[in-house]
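Order emerges. For instance:

***
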Amino acid sequence: MHLDIDLTGRRVVVVGVARGARRIVARYRAAGADVDRFDTVASAVDGLDGATLVVLVEGARAAPPCASAQDDVLRQRCRDTGALLTRETAASDTGHVSLVGGGPGARGLLTLDAAAALRDADVVLYDRLGPTEALAELAPSAELVDVGKLPGHHRVPQAGINALLVQHALAGRHVVRLKGGDPFVFGRGSEELAACLDARVPCTVLPGISSSIAVPAAAGIPVTHRGISHLFTVVSGHAPLTDEEHLHLAGLGGTIVVLMGVSTLPQLVAGLGRAGMRPDMPVAVVERGYSASQRTTSGMLSTIVTAAGAARCQSPAVLVIGEVVRVGLQLQGSAAHLARLTESLAS
């Protein structure tokens, strides 16, 4: 059973030692509650007047195990005062790191494991492309540290991020490294995992939904389609490709998905053209996938640079090159026609 209680301005009593109860206390304070903490059941029994909720912290680093008689006294005092009694697990003192993929930024695309890791975090080191708008709600007991990178500007260099992960974990904290997309798809997650392993810090990798698949889907563009494309290649557009790489991409066929490729779009288009890709190959630039300002700019290999420039396309964006773009545009056209037809029938 799940209950939602507005605890703003209400008194919550937490029973458990400070270290084990730290996340619980922080979470209820973040919810607006007036929180008092007692080390033991015996010390808390006389302090329950006016409490809406009593939280008994159990497990490692919790209050000493209470005798059955004390447990009965606590339950009776809660009944007498009208307070709800609940039990939560204490925070562990064993520091560890969770490398979490946040998907393309929409809160609903977080995995269940990712959401659970955020709820349990002491510290969150986050990037700008993750689901940051609701981060205070998703990680209510955590210190939030922005280590995001902008094009041409790294607020915290990668070596510094690695050091922060290790430093906080060795201090006994649960550290969540929250990234956009998936940690192992152009996310330097493997470098951060290596830093943790070198420092003998336990580290868990929680995959995320990669923007290479999700953002085209948000625009209605499939990366594969029966009879059209049976493979797709994901490329980093952070730096221009070589002539040999252009030749391989153009010869491989299928769909090409480029992440971080707005600034290098002219070089990419020119290189693919020199490698033999036909000028009328469909291309789409999908900006800010899954946001309220999502936008798709489409064209052909011979026209997309001019179209993207006229539309002033900017990062973050995903480029899609291949016949699947035409499929996606046809699907979107059909969906728009159906929506207009439904609207006219309803009126």
